[in-house]
Amino acid sequence: MNSMIDRAYRKNLSTQGVVFLAGQERPVTVRNLSITGVLIELNNITRAGEHDSSQDLYELALDALKVDIFLPDMRIAGEADVVRVDMENDKVLLALEFNNISHDVDNLLYKRKVYRKNMSVPGSILLGGQYLDFDTVNVSVDGIMIELKETVRVEPGLVTVFEFHELDLQGEARIIWVDVLATGQMLMGMQYVHMEKTVIPDVPQFERIDVSPA
Q1: Domains identified in the chain, total number
Q2: What CATH number does the domain containing 85 carry?
Q3: pLDDT for residue 203
Q4: pTM, to two decimals
Q5: What is the largest CA-CA distance in the chain?
């Protein structure tokens, strides 16, 4: 395991969570947890009810560099680096080092309903009769937060169109809130009204529901 995780105090426990691996949300059991990382055991059955053999799951895990993780009992959600993959008694174990983690997310997930992934993706949005470039701050299956380099006059409630060239996504979204920063940039929270695709690549849902293995 990564030396940073080895040096940190690790607490043995058994609690349930979810990781987003190879495009699927998969239940996991936490073996031990530290301030820098976690050791998890993957469940062979996905949240969608699909079954993978331990060998197939092991090979999928070997190809993963990062995963999204949600540990509701620990109130932890975010990204983690995969630092080791092991097979033990036909169980696949992942040693993860926390990378971009939010703590005490319970109330936030209840408010937003789904997990928001921090990621920066360029896009464009129609405002004031012209398309303006933006970068995402975070993305979920029901909405996005974006940052514009310039300030424009816009009111919450406006429905407009947007597109992501890299993700091959386009659709309509309702502006929920607007915040102008002291540096001149503008932040905007938007909720999807309509999208051409129903699945956003690499973005898990992580709804606040029971995560116990099937």
Answers
A1: 2
A2: 2.40.10.220
A3: 62
A4: 0.58
A5: 61
